[in-house]
């Protein structure tokens, strides 16, 4: 009986050690040191109104480098169009330099095939621009849609990702 209890404790200890090792390995391989910022904000359930803006505040950067800004969009099947036009306004602080980009987001190809990933929600990512930022610079990013329709249904989330090149 005592030998059986010792064997069970050893087996449990080995399983815990194996799970811990697997978790550490996953965490180490999942880290992307190039990603500085990656955040999504939700739009209103009733639809994204033309005068609603989505804002992101990126803290002061630790080092000067070239950075790449990406725009993320998540849609549902209720989005009625094949493309989406978004205005991305980035203010670089403390210089108060403002950069404005109009991003034409193609959501389907010429045959109508969806270009995004996912089933219930479709996720897209679009290049905004490359930025040369200095140590201590921070960004205030504002995103709004530039579609003729006042309220856009089917846009769930909008995000900004900043990668160090």
UniProtKB/TrEMBL annotation:
It holds the Pfam family GldH_lipo. Keywords: Lipoprotein. The lineage of its organism: Bacteria, Pseudomonadati, Bacteroidota, Bacteroidia, Bacteroidales. NCBIfam families: GldH_lipo (TIGR03511). It comes from Leyella stercorea. It comes from the Bacteria. This is Gliding motility lipoprotein GldH.
